[in-house]
Amino acid sequence: MFKHLAASIRGVGHRTIEGIWQLGHATRFFLLVLLKSGTSFRRFGLVIRELYYVGVLSLIIIVVSGLFVGMVLGLQGYETLQKYGSESAVGTLVALSLVRELGPVVAALLFASRAGSAITAEIGLMKATEQLAAMGMMAVDPVARVVAPRFWAGVISMPFLAAIFSVMGVLGGYLVAVVFIGVDAGSFWSQMQSNVDFRIDILNGFIKSCFFGVAVTAIAVFEGYDSPPTAEGVSGATTRTVVTSSLVILGLDFILTAFMFRGI
Amino acid sequence: MTSETLVEISDLNFSYDARPILKGINMTMKRGQLIAIMGGSGSGKTTLLRLIGGEVMPTSGYAKVSGQIVHELDRDALFEIRRKMGMLFQFGALFTDLSVFDNVAFQMREHTDLPESMIRDLVLMKLHAVGLRGAHHLMPAELSGGMARRVALARSIALDPMLMMYDEPFTGLDPISLSVIGSLIRRMTDTLGMTSVIVTHDVQESLKIVDYVYFIADGVIAAHGTPAEVRNSVAPFVHQFVHGEVDGPVPFHYPAQSYHRDLNLEKALV
Ligand SMILES: Nc1ncnc2c1ncn2[C@@H]1O[C@H](COP(=O)(O)OP(=O)(O)OP(=O)(O)O)[C@@H](O)[C@H]1O
Ligand SMILES: [Mg+2]
Q1: Which of A16-20, B88-92, B262-266 is the most confident on average?
Q2: Which domains does chain B have, with CATH numbers?
Q3: What angle do CA B82, A231, A154 make, to 5 degrees?
Q4: What order of strands is seen across the sheet that includes strand B220-225?
Q5: Which one of A113, A146, B95, B188 is most buried, counting C-beta atoms within 10 A?
Q6: Contact B216, B38 (CB under 8 A)
Q7: Which SS3 state, helix, strand or coil, does residue A82 take?
C-alpha cells in the first residue's frame, strides 16, 4: 500500500521533471530557430513557398468556418436581442464577438489542426527518412533551411487568416440577420461602425492572433523536429501538436484577454 | 595521382548507449584511392561513415579529414569541411518535396552563385552520368527504388567533393546499372582525384573496381588488403565473405540467447 503510494508519487515527480526538461528543450529550440532566421529573410522566396502551403491552403477551411460561425452568431444574437427590442444591435454583437474572441481563437484552432499538424508531419517525416541528416551532410543547416521558413510562414499567415475569418463571419451574420431575417441593413452596419473601436477591439484581436501564430507554429516545428524517427513517432508528434497548441491557444487567450480588456 | 593521406582513422571507438559498435578502428585513405568497406549487416559500416562525416561523436580515438580531427571542429568548421564531402545515404534520402532536378541542383543553389543556366547544364550532366537525364522532371515518389538511389548518387556528386562516401551504392540496381555505376565511381575517383569509400555487400562487383578492401566484423577490422590479396586469401573470414558461405567465422545472426530457449524448447529437450 505504502509502496504503491510512493511509486505513484515518484511517477508524478518523474513526469513533472520530464515535462520541465521538455519545456527547456523546446525553448532552446525556439531561440535557435529565431537565431537562424537570417536565411529566411535573405531568401524570402523560401518563406513565400511555405506561405502557400501553410496559409493559402488553409484558406478554404477558414472561409467556410468563418461564414458558418458568423451565421450562427447572427441567428443566436437575433433571438436574444429581439426579446429586448434591440435586434439592430446584432451587427455589433457579431462583429465584437468575432474581432475580439472568435476570430483569433477559432481561426487559430483551425490553423493548428490544418497547418500545424501538416508542418509537424512534414518535418517529422523528413527527419525519419534522413532528409534532414542528408541536408546537414551537405553543409546546409536544416533548422535554417527547413524549420525557420515554415515557422515564419506560420507566424505571417495567422493574423491574415484570423482577419479573413472575422470578415467572413461578419458577412455570415449580415446574411442571416439582414438578408434572411430582415433586420435593417443601415442600422446593422452603422451600429457596428460606431461600437467597434479600432484600437481596443481590432488591434487587440490582431495582437492575439500574432501570439497564437507564434505559439502554434513554434509547437508544430518543435514537435516535428523532436519526433522519434519512426511512423509512430511522427503520428504521435502530430497529435501532440494539435492537442498542445489547442490548450495553449485557449490558455493564452485567457491571459491576453485579462491583460487587454481588464487592464484598460 | 598523389599519395597524400586524406582520411586518417586512429583507434576509433564508438558505442550506442552501452553497446560498443566499433572497437579500435585504424584506417588510412589516400587521395585518388577507391576503398571498399565490407562486413556483415549491422557490423557498423554506416556508423563508420557517420563518424567520418561528423554526424556522431566517437567515444574515443578520432577520424581526421584533410588533417582536421572531425569531432573537434566547431559547427562552422564542420560545415566548411562537409562542403568537400559527399555522402550517398543508404536509403537515398532524397528531398521528397523537390523534383529530381531540384534535388540534384540543391547544393549548387545553396553553396554557389552559379547562374541558373549553368546549373541546368551541370544538373543534366550529373543525371546523364547515372542514366536519368530523361527523368529530371519527376518527383521522388515517382521513382523506383533503384532510380531513387541513382538520383541520390547524382546529387551527392553534384559539387565534385574531394571525399565521397557511398553507403551501399549497388543495392537495388540491375546488373547493367550496377556495372555502369561501378565504373562511374571508379572514373570519378580517377579523373577528379577524389577519395571514394564504398560500403557494399557486392563483393564481386567491388573487387573489380576498388584499390583496397577493409572487412569489419565484431567492431574491429578483421582483414584488409588489395583485391588480389583478398581473392587469394586463405583466411577463413575473408574466404567466407568472398564466397558467400553461411558457415564460417562471420555470424549471420544478431547476438541472441539460445534459439531453443527463445522457442521454449529447453524443457522439451531435457
Ligand atoms: N540510432 C541508433 N541507436 C542505437 N543503435 C543503433 C542506432 N543505429 C544503429 N545502431 C546499431 O548499430 C549497429 C551498427 O549499425 P550500422 O547501421 O552502422 O550497421 P551497418 O554495418 O551499416 O549494417 P547494414 O549493412 O545492414 O547497413 C547495429 O547493430 C545497430 O543495431
Ligand atoms: Mg548500413
Answers
A1: A16-20
A2: 1-84+163-177+194-252 (3.40.50.300), 91-160 (no CATH)
A3: 70
A4: B85-88, B163-167, B195-199, B34-39, B212-217, B220-225
A5: A146
A6: yes
A7: helix
Of A137, A139, A140, the CB nearest to B55: A137
CA B90 to ligand 2 center in whole angstroms? 6
Q: Is the C-beta atom of B47 inside 6 A of ligand 1?
A: yes
Nearest Cα residue to atom 3 of ligand 1: B16
In this complex, is the C-beta atom of A141 within 8 Å of any C-beta atom belonging to chain B?
A: yes
B224-248 pLDDT, tens digit each: 888 888 888 777 777 777 777 666 6
Looking at the complex, does the CB of residue B112 fall below 8 Å from at least one CB of chain A? no
Q: Where are the domains of chain A?
A: 36-261
Q: Is the pLDDT of residue B124 over 60?
A: yes
Pairing type for strands B220-225 and B60-65 reads unpaired
Residue A24 is given by DSSP the state H
Compute, in angstroms, the gap from residue B221 CA to the centroid of ligand 2.
16
Q: What is the ipTM of this complex?
A: 0.81
Is the CB of B15 within 6 Å of ligand 1? no
Position B1 scores a pLDDT of 43
Considering chain A, what is the average pLDDT of its residues? 91
Measured CA distances, A230 to A150, A220, B90 (Å): 22, 17, 16
Per the CB < 8 A criterion, the answer to whether A155 and A119 are in contact is no
Of the candidates A32, A247, A256, A240, which has an alpha carbon nearest to the alpha carbon of residue A116? A240
Residue B172 has pLDDT above 80, yes or no: no
**Residues B203, B166: Cα–Cα separation, whole Å:** 15
